[in-house]
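[job 0412] stage=complex_fold ligand=flavin mononucleotide status=START
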Amino acid sequence: MKILAIHGSPHTTRSTTRKLATFVLEGAAGAGAEIEMIDLCDFRITPCTACEGCSFNGICVYEDDVPAILERMKEADGIVFASPVYIDNISGQMKIFFDRLADAIHYQVLAGKCGCSVATTHTSGGAEVVAYQDHVLNYLGVISVGGIHVATGGNAEAVEAAERDARALGKKLADALRNGLSDPKQEEEITGNREFFRTIVIENRDFRTEEYERWVRLGWIG
Ligand SMILES: Cc1cc2nc3c(=O)[nH]c(=O)nc-3n(C[C@H](O)[C@H](O)[C@H](O)COP(=O)(O)O)c2cc1C
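[job 0412] stage=complex_fold status=DONE, emitting structure tokens
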């Protein structure tokens, strides 16, 4: 069982959010998961220019590191999104990465995985950023087991007080991957989204045949 954390703070290894996400991963490792972390700032990620090139063949017109990151996400069973709060939202680095996942969302290539969300902030916005990252997990077809956010008040050591809760979240994720997780509300949202994406998959079946056939095989197209 593999869990991959995607971390979006430009502080990279000095990041408070990374520290909190590390506790989550360690909790998962203690429950038997193989863990890894990606620092988005170490990768070349070009902002989406809305050219719609990817909608024709699933390949972005820009050659960068996003396809390699997406492969690592596909190989993982669990996905953790971790971002600091920047002006009441995720970091710009995280948003640029999320925008590049539009095709993966439309074709639901990560569906069936579980995940969770992590955020740190000085004062406010932590709950909103956790909720937004959970929302993106659901867009991807991934069920979230929950989230954790810490307001440090400027003292990075404050995340240590949340270590126990963060480790418990990681264990919960590993347990969900091992035993399965039922969450009717999220399942309803994911199924509703899939209804919408289904029209895209059907419309594009002549040039996205492989993806169309995958949806038929999965019973998502009758
Ligand atoms: C550009 C920028 C915007 C920020 N916006 C907010 C904000 O809206 N609300 C808040 O409480 N803290 C805000 N902060 C503080 C960070 O959320 C906080 O320091 C966070 O723990 C940093 O995590 P990191 O070390 O992982 O980058 C901001 C910091 C930066 C650099």
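The chain has one domain: 2-181.
[job 0412] exit 0
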